[in-house]
Amino acid sequence: MPFHKTDFPGLFIFEPVIYGDSRGFFFESYNEKIFQQQNIDLRFVQDNQSSSSYGVIRGMHYQLNPHAQTKLVRVLTGVVLDTVVDIRKNSPTYAKVFSIELSAENKKQLFIPPGFAHGFSVLSEKAEVFYKCDEFYNKECEAGICYNDPALKIDWKIPPEKIIVSEKDQQLPLLADCKNNFQFT
Fold this sequence. Notes:
- By secondary structure, the chain is mainly beta.
- It has a single domain, classed as Jelly Rolls (Sandwich), CATH 2.60.120.10.
- It contains two helices and 13 strands; from the N terminus they run ββββαβββββββββα.
- It has helices at residues 32-37, 167-170, and strands at 3-5, 12-14, 19-21, 24-26, 46-53, 57-63, 71-77, 79-86, 97-103, 109-112, 116-122, 126-133, 142-144.
- The two termini are 26 Å apart.
- 29% of the residues are buried.
């Protein structure tokens, strides 16, 4: 089965079956039937792609209800440390951090349900990140948590002097002060 559970309810690692030979490789990065077999029945409506250089940290982002997004994240080139924080109140993993290395080479993907703040750091010279969303971007529901919140203790695997973060992301609130309308059910 290409899905691997994590200790976080609803958060999965998806490893597609890779068919390789002397010409290269082929794989299905998304197949609705395979996801439905895992009781994941959703419709992706938006694809996003970013390119970043070494040391860039993007995050920790999410959208509030009623426009919360499920994301399926993968890396097209390079290597990133993909990181999420469970912000669903009453969740057994509330305020806990999960990180995984996603790369063009390992082809792993992270399936992130609503109620998680999401971000990544670029560990290679460059990286292109691609992710599918089941809800359109909505500026009024945009929210986030500061990447260096001391309560979260996220190790981005980047030396402090090499970290590159947008001004907008530097001004995000701490988890204790963030906008949050998620409940674990």
